[in-house]
Design goal:
Elements: H1 2-18, H2 20-40, E1 53-59, H3 65-74, E2 79-82, E3 84-85, E4 88-89, H4 92-100, E5 106-110, H5 114-121, E6 130-136, H6 142-178, H7 182-198, E7 213-218, H8 231-244, H9 247-261, H10 263-268, H11 274-304, H12 312-336, H13 340-357, H14 369-374, H15 379-392, H16 397-421
Length: 425
């Protein structure tokens, strides 16, 4: 029995290694996945000196506390503060435009009355608070922005409480002295003054909600957002795109099976052109892709309350272009794959690797700069940008023309190479 088992094992190994394309794909797929994901995840959500978080900062404050807050942010580990671009000091409009363009994910804006409001709040809790604004690209994952917002909030609150402490102490002692006999008022006031003077910037002061500062997260001004996006509006499009490109293996395997069964040979004798045959073969899978998108988005809307943006036509056109790229890739794999193993390996390799590069698993903004550039070779990245423009950013046709054009370009290239390499026998 042992000899029989060994003989069968050797036979199957010979069959397996005879299919060189299949065996290469078998080993190449996990290797590529490890390489891509390890590089893409390098430093994700853990800023380092080599890859710090870049944060735009605009200080409009007329007093000293705004500058002090910026200095505190510059001293934070893992954060690079950017307040000038091309030797131009950032203002609100410039920072808003940079976040809107996707060049930076977040900007911190200190208002003009920052110092005055904080100091006045020390003695009058009824005044309107100064608002520190975070301009955030809504397509940026909260795992990235939340630590930055938390660090800024904690730093500003502590700084405000420290700045207010001497004035609060002096005011408290003055109020205490007012209720004492005249001969004791001067002494109590002197104690309060001495105590407040002993405080310095190194003193650990506990802050409360009356520091006079509010914090607000807003989207760039040209984004048409009625409700700030949730994780659902960010995740559903990503996973939908990821699923769309699994049609590649199904389509390619179906074509290979028809070749094996001789169906293609029989169809060729019919009064049917070869382009018509290929288009007829692709159309069902293209329609399946469209149904997939409709189903996934319906789940997002009905179960999670996801919004679909303000421009449904733009959403439909992005979907049509993405489905074209996916089916085009499926035909390309069918043209180059000669065995089920090759098709399975190549299709899975492309689906997972391009998804990882394109930001389906790791947001592109969290990748190293080189990976962000490489991501442009993935149709997944362009599809995700298109969906985010419509669903997350609330933009319309003008914003997605570029993404739609690139996706159609991918489809044309895939179809062209496939038609050149395709064999009908």
């Amino acid at each position: 029995m042992i000899h029989q088992i060994i003989a069968i094992t050797i036979k199957d190994l010979k069959v397996l290694f005879h299919d060189r394309g299949g065996i290469v794909a078998l080993f190449l797929m996990p290797a590529m996945f490890i390489l891509v994901m390890s590089y893409a995840l390098q430093g994700t959500f853990e800023p380092t000196a080599d890859q710090p978080y870049e944060v735009l900062v605009v200080n409009q404050d007329n007093g000293e506390l705004g500058a002090e807050a910026v200095k505190g942010l510059e001293d934070l580990d893992g954060v690079t503060i950017i307040n000038t671009v091309e030797d131009y000091t950032l203002d609100f409009e410039a920072a808003d435009a940079l976040v809107s363009a996707g060049d930076y994910p977040i900007a911190v804006i200190f208002p003009t009355d920052f110092t005055d409001t904080i100091m006045n709040a020390a003695t009058d809790s009824t005044i309107e608070k100064a608002t520190v604004s975070f301009i955030v690209d809504p397509s940026t994952a909260s795992q990235f922005t939340a630590p930055i917002q938390g660090a800024v909030t904690g730093l500003v609150q502590n700084m405000a409480a420290t700045a207010q402490a001497p004035l609060r102490i002096t005011t408290a002692f003055d109020e205490m002295a007012a209720g004492m006999p005249p001969e004791q008022q001067g002494f109590v006031g002197q104690i309060g003054a001495a105590f407040s003077e002993s405080l310095n910037s190194n003193t650990d002061v506990q802050f409360d909600e009356e520091t006079g500062v509010n914090f607000a997260q807003v989207a760039p001004s040209n984004y048409e957002i009625k409700v700030y996006p949730s994780s659902v509006t960010q995740n559903v499009p990503g996973y939908t795109i990821f699923g769309l490109f699994f049609i590649v293996q199904v389509l390619a395997s179906s074509i290979l099976q028809e070749k094996t069964d001789g169906t293609f040979r029989r169809l060729l004798v019919a009064p049917l052109s070869r382009p018509a045959l290929l288009l007829g073969k692709l159309l069902p899978y293209y329609l399946i892709n469209l149904v997939q998108v409709a189903l996934m988005f319906t789940i997002g809307v009905l179960i999670f309350g996801m919004t679909l943006g303000n421009h449904p036509i733009a959403l439909v056109l992005v979907t049509l272009a993405t489905a074209a790229a996916a089916t085009g890739m499926g035909l390309l794999v069918a043209a180059i794959g000669k065995t089920p193993e090759q098709i399975s390996g190549v299709a899975t390799l492309l689906a997972i690797t391009l998804a990882a590069i394109g930001g389906m698993m790791v947001p592109t903004f969290a990748m190293p700069e080189a990976m962000q550039t490489i991501s442009k070779i993935s149709p997944h990245a362009w599809a995700l940008m298109g969906y985010q423009d419509v669903i997350v950013r609330g933009l319309g046709m003008a914003a997605v023309v570029n993404e739609i054009s690139v996706l159609l370009g991918f489809a044309i290239v895939f179809f062209g190479i496939a038609a050149w390499r395709f064999r009908f026998d």
